[in-house]
Structures are given as structure tokens and as C-alpha cells.
Specification:
The structure is a single chain. The chain is mainly beta and 214 residues long. It folds into 2 domains: 3-106, Sandwich (Immunoglobulin-like), CATH 2.60.40.10; 114-213, Immunoglobulins (Immunoglobulin-like, Sandwich). It has helices at residues 2-11, 104-107; strands spanning 14-21, 24-30, 41-48, 55-63, 67-69, 81-89, 92-93, 97-98, 114-119, 124-129, 132-136, 142-144, 152-159, 168-173, 177-180, 188-197, 202-203, 210-213. The strands form 5 sheets. Strands 3, 4, 6, 7 and 8 form a 5-stranded antiparallel beta sheet that branches. The longest helix has 10 residues, at 2-11. It starts with a helix and ends with a strand. Residues 12-107 form the Fibronectin type-III domain.
Length: 214
């Protein structure tokens, strides 16, 4: 019996956790401490906090991967969820490994906006587009993250002659089109932007640099 218990313990999945970007939420885990046998497969269940019954995730039932997409199952983004995983190898089932509680609205990482830059004589026109969520409206178009969060845009400008560190915040607000005026002709300027969620006091990473020469 103890030998079987050892095997059960050694194949039990480790580090079961949710990763989430723009509400695309996946459950990740690592194999147990036994060298993973070729025949090891995994079974995933999920539930809303407070519910007594676990739901099977059919697409992640008997899989060999170490990741399972639970975006659709966690679409009520204010609800807290749990995921759990068990392994089976050589006919032996491990116990379930449980994730921490996961609330998509609070814990998802919000990405930077898409930035498009155009210029005229002495000004730069910046267009910003919020990241999209994975969820669709009834008409079929994707719901932007601004439908779920009160997002602000932070826009930074760099004079390309200076080094990366001299980023100047030139705008913070909700406008999606911004004009920066009175810039020097013949100088190359680079723009980067972040999304900022005041309620969570959290900023995204920087967008990729968009540069233009006046």
C-alpha cells in the first residue's frame, strides 16, 4: 500500500495556478516530482467558490499538456474560481492538486494599448486602442477591456536622441486620439503608452515603441 501511496504522491501535479492576460485565463501546472512517464495524463475540473460540485473540463480530460484554457468557464469575471488537476500514470491516480482562489477581474493582467502614430509639421497625432477581451457581444464583435474596467491611457514621449530612460509623460486620460504640438521639426520622436486602472492602482507594461520623424 505504501508503495502505491508513494507513486500517487510522486505523480501528483505541482504548482497549479491560473495565468490571465486581458481575461484570457488558463490553468497551468507542473508534473509531479517523479520523472514524468510517457503515459501520464491529466484531468482538470473547475468550480465557482462556494459551489459544492466540481465541473469537468471536457477538453482537458485525459490530456498530456500542462495547461488548460478556462477562459469560457471563468467568464463571470467578478466571481472567484478554483481549478484542480489530477494525474494518472500506469493505472495509478494521484490526489487532486488545487489552485489558489482566482478572481479574473481582480487578477488578470491588462495589456498595453495598441498605438498608431502619424505626424504633421510640428505635431504628432496618437491613436490608442484598448486591448480586447476574449468575450463577444451578441452581434459577434469582441468586447473591449474598457467595458469591464475604467481605463486611463498614459502616453510617454521620448526624443530619440536621448536614451530610453528619458520618457516624459505627456498625457493621462481616456481620449483615444491625442495631439502633441510644438515639437521640433527634423527630430525623431518615439511614443509608448500604458493602460492604467485607477481602481486597482495598476499599470500595464509599455506598448512597443512607435517612432516618427517630424
Amino acid at each position: 500500500v505504501s508503495e502505491n501511496q508513494d507513486l500517487k504522491d510522486s505523480i501528483k501535479p505541482q504548482k497549479v495556478e491560473f495565468h490571465s492576460l486581458n481575461l484570457n485565463s488558463t490553468l497551468h501546472w507542473q508534473p509531479g516530482r517523479a520523472r514524468e512517464a510517457r503515459d501520464t495524463v491529466y484531468f482538470v475540473q473547475y468550480k465557482v467558490y462556494g459551489q459544492s460540485t466540481w465541473q469537468n473540463k471536457d477538453e482537458c480530460w485525459g490530456i498530456q499538456h500542462h495547461v488548460c484554457d478556462l477562459t469560457n468557464e471563468t467568464s463571470d469575471i467578478q466571481e472567484p474560481y478554483y481549478g484542480r488537476v489530477k494525474a494518472v500514470s500506469a493505472g495509478t491516480y494521484s490526489d487532486w492538486s488545487l489552485s489558489c482562489r482566482f478572481t479574473p477581474w481582480r487578477e488578470t493582467v491588462i495589456g498595453p494599448p495598441m498605438v498608431t502614430v502619424a505626424h504633421s509639421n510640428k505635431s504628432i497625432i496618437i491613436k490608442l486602442q484598448a486591448p480586447r477581451s476574449p468575450y463577444k457581444r451578441k452581434r459577434g464583435n469582441m468586447i473591449p477591456m474598457t467595458s469591464y474596467y475604467d481605463l486611463l491611457y498614459q502616453v510617454f514621449i521620448m526624443n530619440n536622441l536621448l536614451d530610453e530612460q528619458h520618457r516624459v509623460l505627456v498625457y493621462e486620460g481616456k481620449d483615444r486620439v491625442i495631439e502633441i504640438e510644438d515639437l521640433r521639426p527634423g527630430v525623431s520622436y518615439c511614443i509608448m503608452a500604458k493602460t492604467y486602472v485607477p481602481m486597482l492602482d495598476r499599470s500595464s507594461a509599455y506598448s512597443s515603441r512607435q517612432c516618427t520623424m517630424l
